[in-house]
Amino acid sequence: MSEFHLIRPAWLLAIPFAIALWWWLRQRGVGAASPWHRWVDPALHAIMISDGRERRGGIVQWFALASAIIGLVALAGPSWERVSLPVQRGSDALVIALDLSRSMDATDIAPSRLIRARLKLLDVLAERKDGDTALLVFSANALVVTPFTSDGAPIASL
Questions:
Q1: What angle do helix axes 15-28 and 53-75 make, rounded to 10 degrees?
Q2: What is the pLDDT of residues 99-154, one digit of tens each?
Q3: What span, in angstroms and rounded, lies between the C-alpha atoms of 60 and 32?
Q4: By the 8 A CB rule, do 156 and 125 touch?
Q5: Which residues lie below 8 Å from residue 41, measured CB to CB, with a gap of 6+?
């Protein structure tokens, strides 16, 4: 029982408002089975209108109140295990575009431009701690290799 908690307990503040709304609607007679209850004397009401509709109307009103309360408790998010929710996620995103055209095979930089670019990409991924990263390669056409991910391992492997 010590592990039980509510994820969004603020929803419980709406329960008194649901009860107050239910009470107000009940006092106004909204949802009553017969509109005659406003015009007929209460002493004669039970005799004149006795087909059971009033009772069903009351059950429906109680059922509506119980459903509203159960729904609000469910929205509060009861849980038996604690899950840490990130307060703020890093909003910096990085898209790495890698050129795979024939010009990257030039050997003016040892061993080649493509291998040096790959090593630089691995260095950037190793240094990057927060935020999402995506890899885009292009030559004649562009291709998304990996969509945005917070884990650099899939990008490094590809």
A1: 160
A2: 888 888 887 888 888 889 899 999 998 888 778 889 999 988 888 888 888 888 88
A3: 9
A4: yes
A5: none
Number of C-beta neighbours around residue 133 at 10 A: 22
Burial 50-65 (b: 16+ CB within 10 A, else e): eeeebeebeeebeeeb
Nearest residue to 79 (alpha-carbon basis) of 20, 1, 158, 157: 1
Give 22-73 pLDDT, tens digit per residue.
888 887 765 555 566 677 777 776 676 655 555 555 788 889 899 999 999 9
**If we measure between CA atoms, which residue out of 142, 123, 100 comes closest to residue 133?**
123
Euclidean distance between CA atoms 157 and 20, whole angstroms: 60
Alpha-carbon distance of 57 to 154, in angstroms, equals: 61
Q: If you ran DSSP here, which 8-state letter would residue 29 be given?
A: T
Three-state DSSP class for residue 120? helix
Burial pattern 107-125, b for ≥16 Cβ within 10 A else e, equals eeeeeebbeebeeebeeeb
Is residue 116 within 8 Å of residue 79, measured between CB atoms?
no
Backbone φ and ψ for 78, nearest 5 degrees, come out as: -65, 140
